[in-house]
Amino acid sequence: MKLSQVLIKPILTEKANAQQEKLRKYAFRVDRKANKLEIKKAIEEFYGVSVVEVNTSVVPGKNKARYTKTGFIQGMKGAYKKALVTVAEGESIDLYSNI
């Protein structure tokens, strides 16, 4: 798998921001087929930091339903893989520079 296809986007939530400040952990949405070694290599190449640890989890899809004029619509949000990356002491990733 190409390294440009491994990382999809960073996860920017309140919980993720708190982990960035306190624990130096950054959350990313990654490709479902990517393993920890590929994720580590991609982060080090794109952001220029040294990665200490990579934790991954697959977030399951959720059922969604709404009632509209045409009737009751049911669907499901897709599952995705999330990676929590811990960087070395004294290093950081600036996720807001490209916004």
Task: Please give a structural write-up.
With 99 residues, the chain is an alpha+beta fold. The protein has one domain: RRM (RNA recognition motif) domain (Alpha-Beta Plaits, 2-Layer Sandwich). It is built from three helices and six strands, in the order αβαβαββββ. It is elongated. The mean pLDDT is 93.
Features:
99 residues; alpha+beta; Alpha-Beta Plaits; 4-stranded antiparallel β-sheet; 3 helices; 6 strands; 26% helix
**DSSP strand (E) fraction?**
35-45%
Strand ordering within the main sheet:
1-2-6-3
Compressed to H and E, one letter per element, the order equals HEHEHEEEE
- How large, in whole angstroms, is the Cα Rg? 16 Å
Count of the separate structural domains = 1
List the helices and strands and how they pair.
Blueprint: H1 3-6, E1 7-10, H2 14-23, E2 25-30, H3 36-47, E3 51-59, E4 63-68, E5 71-76, E6 80-87
Antiparallel strand pairs: 1-2, 2-6, 3-6, 4-5
Question: Could you provide a short overview of the structure?
Answer:
With 99 residues, this protein is an alpha+beta fold. The chain has 3 helices and 6 strands; from the N terminus they run αβαβαββββ.
